[in-house]
Amino acid sequence: MKKDTTNDMTVGSPVSLIIKFMIPMCLGNLFQQFYNIADSIVAGKFIGVNALAAIGSTGSLMFFVTGWLNGLSSGFAIIVAQMFGAKKFDRMRHYVAMSIYLMAAFSIVMTIGFSLANKPILHLMNSPEEVFGDVTAYMGIIYAGLIITGAYNALAAFLRALGDSKSPLYFLIISAVINVILDVVFIVAFGMGVEGCGYATVIAQGISAVCCLIYIVKRFPILHLERKDFEICWDSFGRLLKLGIPMGLQFSITAIGTIIVQSAVNIYGPVHMAGFSAAGKIQNIFATVFTAFGATIATYVGQNRGAGKMDRVKQGVRYTQMMVLGWSVFVMFLMFFFGKYLTYLFVDPSEQDVVNVSVTYFRTVFWAYPFLGSIFLYRNTLQGMGYGLVPMLGGVFELVARTGIVVLIAGHTSFAGVCMADPTAWIAALIPLIPYYFHVMKKYKNKSQVQAVED
Q: Does residue 406 contact residue 351 with C-beta atoms inside 8 Å?
């Protein structure tokens, strides 16, 4: 008999459930980041600073492209989580099937569109001539593999919607190791340059997707789909897109802001590009805890919202806020005092100019990490309850703030001024999120009180 490994988060201690779910999510996010980080480390060590600058400068663009697919799959999975929490398993499987249609369609369209627009986009980003060819080649390979990226995001999101955050982690560990091996083989042994990094990334992600699919077939009978589940229903497409598109746009809007900042950094040349890239990757490693808490709270809230247990939603958010603040304090201390040494992971200590750029970034933004962590908490809580518009609006606020700083500062003052775009954006993103969360919770509280009186 096949073992069903679903995880019902509507019962039990909220803190225990959140921590147990979050840790594998955090490790999984780290290994997913490791694809690009490994590419950067190998390129920086074996090819040079220009290769590091080339691959590093694609981080914001990759976030824009893959973030859209990640947002879509996360939005679709919230509806799956709500159906699972409500114990409506037939409807749950139907939404899984409709999500597969949509993810395949978006992946194919994006591959065609971005492949055609590759060079124009990089020109808009002010990519310097000395790295332009490498960046174009690397991103072309990434675009060609978007169907694989979409497949992994969707399958992993379905697993997490049912409370399984461990299995995607195991598959990512396997593929991350393979990615590093392929990086070394393609670059060092075959001399393929940055193109080798691109091929290694796509192949490793494909392995993750295949592992997820095999695991679902063997261990999740509740997700076994039949022909009737694939019967097209336009109303179901509409409901999925109503939540998936705002979440995809929210990711993409945030990414557009980071692209604008990257474009401003590119003006200062390859040294600043490399230092900014290294600092961003180090920051992202530690911010993975924030994103893991966010993804955890989305699943937790989605299941409990589906079960109608809003008191548990409130408890989960309160406890998660405490944990986010605790981690923020730790990261503030680490980045301020040890950011310099962490940069040595990416560049040789002799590249002192590059290291100084990273230190400048850390010293400028470290104080704002509590705001960054809170974004993931409140944005994902609202999304878990089925609200997509206001979280997207938070992304708009973030974009406007970043753009404003870049327009006022880029090219007119020091690099530290450009770094202020991130803290300003993090604070701005919370302006619509926190008030709306309390408004929603008050609405549910009043509704339950009215219901109690009527009963």
A: no
